[in-house]
Write a structure and sequence with these properties.
By secondary structure, this protein is mainly α. It contains 74 helices and two strands. A two-stranded antiparallel sheet has the order 1-2. Helix 58 runs antiparallel to helix 62. It starts with a helix and ends in a 12-residue tail after the last helix.
């Protein structure tokens, strides 16, 4: 290969040397005279070009032949071996030869100081390019990389860029991109201060850049150009030269339209709602920020709106401020906790929030001091408490501990940041609150970290406490005293650390804390001091002592033991518990929440550690005395603190439960299970799902050796039921997929409880329906695998009215997996046969043996008991022995058969008296003989598969058993009347709990009955009941009953009756708003025409809470008035002011304003006020007696008709709220967005071309329109759609392709409509790409189809460039070549201008675009005359100047001589004479007269390289040959 390049160089040098010989006189004359070209000189140039061409082609051919010869004759090659292909090596040889040869020619060109000879060489290079002898890219790159291409070498500069402009049209787009970058680099070498002689240089470069940037020429996708410009010059600064700045700036600005079409309107002002499980929601990808810069993760380097490119600290601060937001913070910042990488941006924003919180807390302190009664839990004052503000001390301390624990922030750096910020402010407001926050982390970490890490705290204390006088000792009966003395507690811990490390503290104790120090020392050194005084005035001295000395074991042990022993009780005294022979340690008053709140995190950890240790010891000792009620209640209260999650709920789930279970201490296990379902309101979903798996594991272990098996089994079923129904909609799929796989053991699926598995299927159906999970992708496949596993363990079917409510994927599965149902006639015969056997058998052992094994074949024993009680009104004692042998797990099968048998009996009854008799019989079985608990029977009845009239009978039985007998109704009424669900405020729950159980004692058959009969061998003792009763156990069953009744329209009236009688029980529902929201959402189609039923549901669920909730906690006054109307007055169509007020309430809540009364979020169903406001608003909207279409349109009209009433600057916040509401409403509501989009596209300003006052881009620029006071309706419609899709679940966003295909594309007729469509869809391509890539392909194809339809509908396209830019963005950012074959046919059907712009997407050839009939380019053909060639060259030049693109890549055959086009140089500055070509020819666009004169005057009279020409005639012929006839362009941009 080296030989080939050397040979090429030699031949080219010889050719140039031979044909460029001139003498000094000839050169001087050529510089001074204007000599026209002659045919002889043209022939001379042709000869040179042919020789150069042959030099290249011959050398390549010889080198290729030599390479082939070597490959076939090479030594050592076996005869049988096939020679390797040499195509690659041939290409390499050709490339090396071309590169080397062109560099020789370019070097010769660079040495020329004679413009005529330079033009001669340039013409030769042009010939090599047009004949495809040499790649034009090689020539351009060689010219631009030559070291002599500098502004000082003016002849070479102008000639080189003139040649590049001529041949760059033949370079592929990747080569043009490289050429553009080199041109920008050369532009940087131009002098800043230009002289007149520099103008031709600038013009030469400018024309090349202008040609490359020309969108019509389509040399390079504009998308590549703008990407390069923004990467090289990101902030429009440091352009390579001021002369090019307007060209570059204008080009970048043209992409602002494309960037606008790819941007969500008002995105920086959109805000999410933070949920407990919000981090599991895939839609959070829309909110992700860069963890370093806090900028949106935008795709592509485009000139987006500066607001989108700026840092977004406001969004991060908003999320951090919400309670329970720490997981979402990590998700939004995309930081992995396990990596433990410090996030500076998070640290900075946490500092800002802490400082802002100081001012909030200071205002609250002032308000509470002026109104002391406002802090009372029952106070109706509107003054906000500390907890009402988003950044409470507890929330901040939880965030601080969490982020420092995972090393996402540095504690010393955070404190120094606080110090620097507060030092400049010179204010001490809220300082105690800040010290309290820092104390939480410091007290628990100071022993494990270096002393130096806490020195910044001392500096901060100096800034915040500059007082010269000692602070007074706070009132220790006020819980705020712990916060007021937190600074002193910090100093105590630091002093102890210094003493332990033998380190000298840098400063003495400040005088300001002298009184505090003396007070704490007095507490520590007074062992006679009573630290706890029950039933007396609150005393928080023990909290102060614990907080100050939690790291000093000498003074810490006495108070912490005192605190622990006060709730543990002692063995000397006991108190009775509900049940038989059941007692517990006599401590019934738990530690109050105010006292626990006054303890530091370190003290809470110590306390909860002592409690866990105590429970573990009790489990190991297997004590017959149950744990103290105060201990269990206090333990539950401690578990709500998220800052001690690792030692709290995590230890409870992973360690304590398994330890107690292995110890077989069922009383403690029962207590812990009860505590979790009745007291723990918030726990991470992964722990709850793990707990469910643990319950299934426990229930599967044989426990027939224990006497309390029935009670424990019922408790486990209740826990599992609550865990399943309590899963949030966004938790179900992520949590189940995390713990379930078809190959692993089904730990989330019950192996024997059909009811639990049915409830799990219902929960999954509800979650898929509400969240809109993808029903065709990976989620659907996982769902089918999950259902297959369920069916493997508990085969079952669903009624048609239930299948109609299921999501399609679940309904299809069950329709394909139908299992045969038992024949009712066969069931009746079997029961009669077994009943005859019962009557005929007399041996007790035979009876027990026969009927206890019945569940393996036909579980009919409960049916027999029903007939026994029905016939004899008594139950033989032996029946309990059979039930004991059967066991509770197998008894479930008997209950299912009993349910079917009851439906059969009631269906065949004669009516009236028979029905009454059947009800009395079942009432005796439930309440007198305690065979089956009411909640288990009702759950089984509600979940049985019944069709048609049998379903009606089944629901009729449920209603009769619930309402006709008084037993359940009496219990519900008394329990609701005497108790409150606000357990965290109570200290006397034990007394009320015992009073209810004394009045309504519970028996667990068969053990309790056998114990009364004295037939048990061992002393029977029921398990202690701490929290539950039949009412609370029935509540989740009532939820399911309501839903099953809703599925069948014929029994809706029956449901209203049930809700009227038992709805009061919803006072104790732990998630009332969520339950109502799920009900309205899932059964929207069933409730749409039932306004009375909706109103009854709202009254039952929400209004039952009004006794315990402050006014205004949920519903608006207008809706309450609607609820108070008579039953038959259901017509209400609220006007726009109602909807405006409803939206405004949610807007104000998300702005952080105290709209709702104070709620204790730790024990509330929602994480924060935003989530609460969103759900209660959605419930009220869905509860309106209006069609969903009307409600949704009114919501949109709040913006589209009422935007004039929205305060200036808040429009986007209202847009965010309306979009958020529509996202959370059922499909019939949010489909109105699709209707409004179709209406928008049919507006007169969009369907009539050119009639609009504003172009569509201005019409959709909301900020500009708002600032100028223009009509916002069009922009607001698109903004609401953006807000909706930004918040939406993937199921909602996934409907976009269908919307485009079925509703949008058929109505598209104008380019304005198309621009709006691109505005609507463009911003969400990135989300499609992140979640399901195939949707990107579907949407992109639809965008191409829309473009094709509009292209065929209009004559002129005004916005084709930004539209094409968006399509290029999609290709290079998302789809690549994945849909190339799908869109190629569409692009080929577009008009040529569009094809030319989009040709790089499918790699179309310009020939096929410009001449589709022949596919031939308009270049010169071999053998054309010189005049014809010049004419074509002129046309090509004209085409290039106007943006056209002509392919001049022709090939030569035989000895035909191709035409030679002139090389265009820069334009002349001598516009007065109309001349100024290289040789003075008129009409030339190559103006080098000034440069030639300068070169001549400088004395450069000899040819470069010593090459001369023999005669004047030769000069005259050359001048004639090189004459250029391209048109003149005298303008200088």
């Amino acid at each position: 290969m080296e030989e080939a390049t050397v040979l090429t160089d030699t031949r080219i040098n010889e050719i140039l040397t031979e044909h460029l010989k001139v003498d000094a006189l000839q050169e001087a004359l050529l510089n001074l005279l204007e000599i026209p070209k002659s045919e002889k000189e043209a022939a001379h140039l042709t000869t040179v070009c042919n020789e150069l061409q042959r030099a290249f082609t011959d050398t390549v051919a010889e080198a290729t032949a030599a390479a082939n010869h070597d490959s076939t004759q090479g030594g050592g090659q076996k005869p049988t071996e096939t020679p390797k292909p040499t195509g690659t090596s041939n290409a390499e040889v050709s490339a090396r030869v071309q590169d080397s040869g062109v560099q020789i020619i370019v070097t010769a060109l660079a040495r020329q100081n004679n413009p005529h000879r330079a033009q001669f060489i340039a013409s030769a290079l042009n010939h090599l390019s047009t004949t495809n002898t040499v790649s034009p890219k090689v020539i351009c790159i060689s010219l631009l990389t030559n070291k002599n291409l500098t502004p000082d070498n003016d002849i070479f500069w102008v000639t080189a860029f003139g040649l590049i402009k001529k041949i760059v049209t033949g370079v592929d787009y990747k080569g043009v991109r490289e050429i553009m970058k080199l041109c920008l680099e050369k532009a940087g070498r131009l002098p800043v201060n230009l002289r007149r002689s520099h103008l031709p240089l600038v013009e030469a470069l400018y024309e090349v850049m202008d040609l490359i940037f020309d969108r019509s020429a389509s040399l390079l996708p504009g998308y590549f150009i703008v990407n390069e410009l923004l990467k090289l010059y990101p902030e429009y600064k440091n352009w390579p030269h001021w002369k090019l700045s307007s060209l570059l700036t204008d080009f970048v600005d043209k992409f602002r339209r494309a960037a606008q079409m790819l941007s969500i309107i008002g995105r920086p002002k959109l805000r999410p709602v933070v949920e407990h499980s919000g981090h599991n929601n895939p839609a959070l990808n829309s909110w992700k920020l860069d963890s370093v810069s806090l900028k949106f993760q935008l795709k592509g380097a485009l000139p987006y709106n500066p607001e989108l490119l700026d840092s977004q600290p406001g969004l991060l601060r908003y999320i951090i401020k919400q309670h329970y937001s720490r997981e979402m913070v990590c998700t939004v910042l995309d930081v992995q906790k396990k990596q433990k990488q410090r996030c500076m941006a998070l640290e900075e924003q946490l500092v800002e929030l802490m400082i802002a919180a100081l001012e909030d807390c200071s205002r609250v302190d002032m308000a509470s001091n002026s109104n002391p009664s406002s802090g009372s839990p029952n106070s109706s004052s509107t003054v906000a408490s500390v907890d009402q503000y988003p950044c409470t001390c507890a929330h901040l301390s939880s965030l601080l501990i969490y982020f420092v624990l995972f090393q996402l922030i540095s504690f010393p750096c955070l404190v120094m940041g606080l110090h620097d910020k507060l030092k400049g402010k010179g204010t001490q407001t809220g300082r105690d609150h800040l010290m309290w926050v820092l104390l939480q982390f410091l007290s628990g970490s100071i022993q494990k970290n270096q002393f130096s890490d806490f020195l910044p705290v001392l500096r901060l204390i100096e800034v915040l406490y500059p007082d010269s006088e000692p602070l007074p000792v706070p009132d220790y009966t006020d819980p705020k005293c712990a916060m007021q003395m937190s600074a002193m507690c910090i100093l105590m811990h630091i002093l102890k650390k210094a003493q332990t490390d033998n380190t000298k503290t840098p400063r003495a104790l400040p005088t300001v804390f002298r009184n505090h120090n003396e007070f704490l020392q007095g507490l520590a050194h007074n062992p006679q001091l009573s630290l706890l005084t029950p039933n007396a005035t609150p005393d928080y001295r023990i909290a102060l002592l614990l907080n100050a000395y939690s790291t000093n074991t000498e003074y810490f042990q006495r108070p912490i033991l005192t605190l622990s022993e006060s709730i543990q009780g002692n063995q000397k005294s006991t108190v009775p518990m509900p049940g038989i022979n059941c007692v517990a340690l006599a401590s019934t008053t738990p530690l109050s929440m105010t006292l626990l709140d006054a303890l530091t995190v370190h003290v809470k950890m110590s306390l909860i550690h002592n409690i866990v240790q105590h429970i573990s010891k009790q489990a190991q000792h297997k004590s017959s005395v149950a744990l103290a009620p105060a201990l269990i209640e206090t333990y539950a209260r401690l578990l709500v603190y998220t800052e001690i999650e690792s030692i709290g709920i995590k230890t409870f789930i992973t360690n304590l439960l398994s330890l107690v279970f292995k110890s077989h201490v069922w009383s403690i296990l029962h207590a812990l299970l009860e505590m979790f379902i009745h007291r723990i309101h918030h726990s991470p979903p992964q722990y709850r799902v793990q707990f469910l798996s643990t319950i299934h594991h426990m229930a599967a272990v044989p426990l027939n050796t224990m006497t309390q098996i029935t009670q424990l089994h019922l408790c486990m079923e209740s826990v599992a039921l609550r865990l399943i129904t309590g899963l949030g909609n966004s938790e179900v799929m992520p949590s189940l997929t995390r713990f379930f796989s078809p190959e692993s053991k089904p730990n989330l699926i019950s192996t024997d409880s059909e009811e639990l598995n049915r409830v799990l299927v219902l929960t999954m159906a509800r979650a898929i329906h509400v969240t809109g999970c993808d029903s065709t992708g990976e989620s659907a496949r996982w769902c089918v695998d999950f259902l297959k596993t369920v069916m493997t363990h508990t085969p079952h079917t669903w009624a048609n009215h239930t299948l109609q409510c299921f999501p399609q994927v679940i309904a299809d599965f069950y329709q394909q997996c139908a299992t045969p149902r038992e024949n009712m006639h066969t069931l009746k015969k079997a029961v009669e046969e077994e009943y005859r056997k019962w009557k005929s058998m007399s041996n007790e052992n035979d009876i027990i043996a026969h009927f206890s094994l019945q569940h393996n074949t036909s579980p009919l024993f409960l049916c027999l008991l029903f007939k026994m009680v029905l016939d004899t009104e008594r139950l033989p004692p032996i029946a309990y022995k059979v039930l004991e042998r059967v066991g509770p797990r197998q008894l479930a099968a008997h209950v299912r058969t009993l349910c079917d048998f009851l439906v059969l009996e009631f269906s065949n009854s004669a009516g009236g008296q028979h029905v009454t008799k059947y009800v009395e019989t079942m009432n005796s079985i439930i309440w007198v003989y305690n065979i089956v608990p009411i909640d288990r029977l009702m759950l089984c009845l509600a979940l049985r598969t019944q069709e048609g009239s049998e379903a009606h009978v089944c629901f009729f039985i449920i209603q009769l058993l619930l309402l006709k007998p008084p037993e359940l109704r009496n219990r519900v009424q008394d329990f609701v009347k005497d108790n409150s669900p606000d357990h965290w405020r109570q200290s006397n729950w034990y007394e009320k709990h015992m009073a209810f159980h004394r009045k309504y004692p519970e028996k667990f058959s068969p053990e309790s009955i056998l114990a009364e009969q004295g037939t048990l061998t061992a002393q029977y003792q029921t398990l202690p009941i701490y929290f539950s009763n039949v009412c609370l156990r029935f509540l989740p069953v009532l939820d399911i009953i309501n839903h099953r009744f809703l599925e069948l329209a014929q029994v809706h009236k029956n449901l209203e009756t049930i809700l009227e009688r038992l709805g009061m029980l919803y006072k104790f529902h732990d998630r009332p708003i969520t339950y109502l929201y799920n009900t309205f959402h899932y059964y929207e189609s069933k409730l749409r025409e039932r306004p009375n039923l909706k109103r009854r549901l709202v009254v039952a669920v929400i209004m039952s809470q009004q006794e315990i909730r402050p006014p205004g906690w949920a519903l608006t006054e207008a809706y309450k008035q609607y609820l108070a109307r008579p039953a038959d007055d259901i017509v209400w169509n609220p006007g726009l002011p109602y909807y405006t007020a409803l939206v405004k309430r949610l807007v104000n809540t998300m702005q952080g304003k105290p709209v709702f009364p104070h709620l204790e979020w730790r024990f509330n169903e929602f994480a924060n006020s935003g989530a609460h406001a969103l759900h209660v608003t959605c419930v009220e909207l869905m509860g309106l007696p209006c069609n969903p279409n009307i409600v949704a349109n009114m919501l949109l009209d709040v913006l589209l008709k009422g935007y004039c009433n929205i305060p200036m600057g808040e429009v986007m916040e209202w847009v965010n709220t309306v979009g958020l509401l529509l996202t959370w409403l059922p499909e019939p509501y949010w489909l109105v967005i699709h209707d409004r989009i179709v209406e928008l596209l049919q507006k007169p300003c969009l369907i009539t071309c050119g009639d609009g006052i504003l172009d569509p881009f201005t019409l959709l620029n909301l900020d500009h329109l708002e600032a100028t006071g223009c009509d916002l309706s069009v922009a607001l419609t698109v903004a609401v759609a953006h807000s909706f899709w930004h918040h939406a679940s993937f199921g909602q966003v996934g409907r976009i392709p269908q919307l485009l295909r079925e509703r949008v594309r058929p109505i598209l007729t104008t380019e304005e409509q198309l621009v709006v469509v691109y505005h609507l869809i463009g911003p969400f391509l990135q989300r499609f790409n992140n979640e399901v890539a195939r949707k990107v392909f579907d949407v992109t194809i639809e965008l191409y189809e829309a473009l094709a339809k509009v292209d065929h509908s209009v004559k002129e396209l005004k916005y084709m460039d930004p539209i094409c830019d968006v399509l290029y963005h999609i290709k290079y950012m998302f789809t690549g070549d994945s849909i190339k074959t799908d869109v190629e046919g569409i692009i080929r059907g577009l008009r040529p201008a569009l094809q030319k712009r989009l040709r790089f997407i499918t790699h179309l050839n310009l020939d096929s675009i410009e001449n589709p009939a022949t596919g031939n380019a308009s270049g010169n053909l071999p053998g054309q005359s010189s005049s014809t060639t010049n004419t074509n060259a002129s046309a090509a030049s004209t085409s290039n100047a106007s943006g056209g693109n002509v392919n001049n890549n022709n090939t030569t055959n035989g000895n035909n001589t191709p035409g030679l086009a002139g090389v265009t140089g820069p334009q002349s500055t001598n516009t007065g004479t109309g001349t100024g070509s290289v040789l003075g020819a008129p009409g030339s666009s190559v103006g080098l007269a000034g440069i030639t004169q300068t070169s001549t005057l400088s004395g450069s009279l000899s040819g470069s390289g010593g090459v001369g020409v023999g005669s004047m005639s030769a000069a005259s012929s050359l001048a004639s040959l090189l004459q250029d006839t391209s048109p003149v362009n005298t303008s200088v941009p």
